Recover the amino acids of this structure.
C-alpha cells in the first residue's frame, strides 16, 4: 500500500488534524470539569471551541469532496 499523495494527502491530513482538535477539545472540557471548573471556565469554553472548529473542518472537508 502506498502513501497518499497530492489531494489525497491533503484530505487525509485535514481529517487527522480535525479529529485531533476534537480529541483535544473533549480533553480540555473533561479536565476542567474534573478539577471543579464551572461551565463558564476558560477550559470549558476553549474545549467547546476546539470541538466546534474540528467538527466544522470535517464538515467543510466532506462538503468539498462531493
Amino acid at each position: 500500500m502506498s502513501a497518499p499523495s497530492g489531494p489525497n494527502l491533503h484530505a487525509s491530513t485535514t481529517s487527522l488534524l480535525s479529529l485531533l482538535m476534537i480529541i483535544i477539545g473533549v480533553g480540555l472540557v473533561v479536565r476542567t470539569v474534573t478539577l471543579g471548573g464551572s461551565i463558564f471556565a476558560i477550559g470549558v469554553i476553549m474545549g467547546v471551541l476546539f470541538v466546534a472548529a474540528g467538527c466544522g473542518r470535517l464538515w467543510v472537508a466532506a462538503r468539498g469532496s462531493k
